[in-house]
Design a protein that fits this description.
D-Maltodextrin-Binding Protein, domain 2, about 40% helix, about 450 residues, 2 domains
Length: about 450
């Protein structure tokens, strides 16, 4: 069985923020009875299913029941299939009854504060970074220090799971880079090559327009999606350190540096699909897949939004250099995983399942069930089902000089959801109103971050 690359093969500069003032350096990485009538908002929005295991066969809860909240709607694609497979396998291996509460991604993310303060599921899908640490500091997450170490998850992933108090509140399961994706056949048919400079890049976009192809697929109905464009432009123009300082409130949103980012973005908008606020990322992926658009800046989960035959035709390159003094070795590579709610009905059952979800067996169960596997965090997981795209993704993360989690994971949740997301939406509608938009973000950021 082929194994994934060991954690120590990834760059020492792979970084994740786990709290408002602390940066962690990643030195590695690179279902029971139906529960009805929950008063939590997410339970009301989601659909519950159950899996019932047989006799306990090792590792985990050893009977009993656990509630599992996931941020993918039933039938939404490979991401849900992977989570469901993990729930089913855990139930079978441990004899635990698992109630699966499936909620669409946007509703889950936007309602997480209410969810955790209500009657949350025991274990739930979440992210590394500031967003995890913020909930930990507010007492909404259970301390998972007693489930660490987890075999196959090295010190780097443990560090990414650690809040400023030094305790772990997170179990990683996968990670993925953001890059510029394209169809190899479309590039080949048109004689296009991967750009090596920004001049090459702009020439490529002009050629695409001349061929009647919109250079970039683009979506903003999912409010988080355009944040990826901001991240890469800010890291290319101002550098990784400035970007992370901005997320922590140590740099101002109305600074000349941030204004330059939005001015550059405004100049690039004519190369993007129009009216992005009414388009989901899946719809944008479809536009790239059918050749309507030539490229798409997104995470490698883009494969979940296209047909398998299209996925096998995908390749990617990292966004080109904009400033030679800064280079192009920084990128977003978020880590997904699981937390246990402090307010869940059975914290111990949640911890047992969370510990299992971080294992190689859990990753293998997920990837063997879905058409599109994820890149497993656990270094003992099989890579037999990895596509060439995923193997390349691992290499790109290894070669990166600096890595951010993602704007809405690296900064305060209230700032990201209630200020930055709508401000970006306003910018996309009124791209010439940069000064007013940035002044508003800056004023509210100072209020929220202090």
């Amino acid at each position: 069985m082929t194994k994934s690359l060991p954690p120590q093969s990834l760059p020492a500069s792979l970084a994740a923020t786990s709290g408002p003032t602390r940066r962690n350096i990643l030195r590695a990485a690179g279902l029971g009875g139906l529960v009805l009538g929950s008063s939590s908002l997410l339970a009301a929005c989601g659909g519950s299913d159950t899996a019932t295991g047989g006799a306990t066969t090792g590792g985990g809860g050893g009977g009993g029941s656990v509630k599992f909240g996931v941020n993918e709607a039933r039938g939404s694609g490979p991401a849900f299939t992977r989570l469901e497979a993990m729930a089913n396998t855990y139930a079978e291996e441990t004899g635990t009854e698992v109630s699966l509460n499936a909620v669409d991604h946007n509703t889950f993310q936007e309602s997480i504060n209410t969810y955790l303060q209500g009657t949350p599921d025991d274990v739930f899908t979440w992210f590394a970074g500031f967003r995890m640490a913020q909930f930990a500091e507010n007492g909404l997450l259970a301390d998972l220090s007693d489930v660490w170490p987890i075999e196959g998850l090295g010190d780097a992933f443990r560090e990414a799971s650690t809040a400023p108090d030094g305790n772990q509140y997170f179990v990683p399961v996968s990670y993925y880079p953001w890059a510029v994706f394209y169809r190899k056949s479309v590039f080949a048919d048109n004689g296009w090559t991967v750009p090596e400079s920004y001049d090459d890049f702009t020439a490529l976009m002009s050629d695409m327009q001349g061929a009647g192809i919109t250079p970039f697929a683009f979506a903003a109905k999912d409010a988080w999606a355009p944040m990826g464009t901001f991240d890469i432009l800010n890291m290319r123009l101002n550098g990784f350190d400035f970007h992370m300082a901005l997320t922590r409130g140590e740099e101002a949103w109305d600074s000349p540096q941030v204004k330059t980012v939005f001015e550059t973005w405004r100049d690039l908008l004519p190369f993007h699909q129009e009216d992005p606020l009414g388009r989901t990322w899946q719809e944008a992926a479809t536009a790239m897949g059918n050749g309507e658009c030539g490229m798409y800046l997104l995470g490698s989960f883009v494969v979940d939004g296209v047909d398998p035959e299209v996925a096998s035709d995908l390749d990617f390159f990292t966004f080109p250099e904009l400033d030679a003094a800064i280079g192009s070795d920084a990128l977003d590579a978020p880590i997904d995983g699981f937390c246990v709610a402090a307010g869940g009905q059975d914290v111990d059952a949640g911890k047992a399942m969370a510990a299992w979800l971080g294992t190689a067996a859990a990753a293998d169960a997920a990837n063997s069930a879905a058409e599109a596997p994820f890149i497993a965090a656990n270094d003992g997981a099989s890579t037999d089902s990895y596509s060439e795209l995923q193997k390349k993704s691992v290499e790109v993360v290894q070669q990166a000089g600096s890595i951010a989690q993602f704007l809405d994971r690296d900064t305060n949740a209230d700032l990201a959801n209630t200020v930055i997301a709508p401000a970006i939406g306003e910018f996309l509608q009124n791209p010439d109103d940069i000064d007013t938009i940035l002044t508003s973000i800056a004023d509210q950021a100072r209020s929220i971050l202090g």
